[in-house]
Amino acid sequence: LAMQQLETLLEGLFVSDARYRFRGQRLIKMVQIVVDTVVRQFQKGEFLPAAWELRFGGGGGLPPVRIPCPGGKEVELHGVIDRVDSFEKDGVQYVRVVDYKSGGRKWSQEELRLGLRMQLAVYMDAVLSSGLGQDKVPAGMFYQQLMAPVVDRVVAEGDAEAQLSRRMRMQGLVLDDPSIIRAMDKNAGTSDVVNVSLKQDGSVHPQSGGNVASGEGFLELLRAGREVLREKVSGILSGVTDISPVRLAAGDPPCAQCDYASICRFDVRAGDRYRTPQGGAAQEREGEPDAALDE
To answer: 13 phi and psi, to 5 degrees?
Structure first.
């Protein structure tokens, strides 16, 4: 099927010469790896897909996410959730949302609270606040990488497959419940399905850290995300257009992949400073340019 699509994609570009045929074969290989990964993840767990490309708002299957703003105004958020999975235990329906990403993307609670990674929280909010989410419990929200990472070619074949599986596992937030984690990966010691680990006694490993949250903690995080959205939307409606990117760690310039760098003209060499999570200004090390300015 992938080959048939490539033969007609972009007016046959990927079969036009040897170079593009090679690129096409690489794309097909990546598709095979991703499909194998998703199938393996379902085989290793008990969650099953409940919906694909589920639209909320805009006449979709779910209502929009509504954000109340000052003055009685309300903003509607529309979008498409790549996948919604579910699992039933003791009469309770657990749901997880999955967003496919072309590159490897990590997720952290800190970035959500800073308003930097809102997508997964909005998706879960859309499911839980609709009829589909009635009497349902959030079990996890994840990014799933679609580009196969490079693995060490020196290792044995079996080790290479294990390394690839581990690097392709879903990244995000999981409910801090060993039974639910095992429903995502029956063999969860160090899981290659989700980014958590269980100890030998079955409890969640401390190294899982910010990747897990209790039931109330999960809901609190969603409420915090909604409040951040309310603040952001209210600011937009009030005309706030401050250029104030947040830098989470040295060596990780937030503007490196921004499409609007040439418009905002943020430049640390001209005295501009990133904000830090603590609200201060990050001091740039001498001789450390912003990657966005050197491309």
So the answer is: -55, -40
Alpha-carbon 31 to chain mean position: 19
Secondary structure class of 289 (helix, strand, coil):
coil
Whether 247 contacts 282, CB under 8 Å: yes
pLDDT 10s per residue in the chain (295 long)? 777 777 777 777 777 788 878 888 878 888 888 888 889 889 999 999 999 999 999 888 899 999 988 888 889 999 999 999 999 998 889 999 999 987 766 778 888 888 888 899 999 999 998 765 567 899 999 999 887 655 555 544 556 566 666 777 888 999 999 899 999 998 767 788 888 878 877 777 766 667 889 999 999 999 999 999 999 899 888 888 888 888 877 666 777 778 888 888 888 888 888 887 765 445 444 334 444 444 4
The terminus-to-terminus CA distance of the chain in angstroms comes to: 37
Nearest residue to 94 (alpha-carbon basis) of 61, 127, 143: 127
What distance in Å separates the CA atoms of residue 34 and residue 165, rounded to the nearest whole number?
Answer: 10
DSSP at 190? B
Quote the CA–CA distance of 247 and 270 in Å, as a whole number: 17
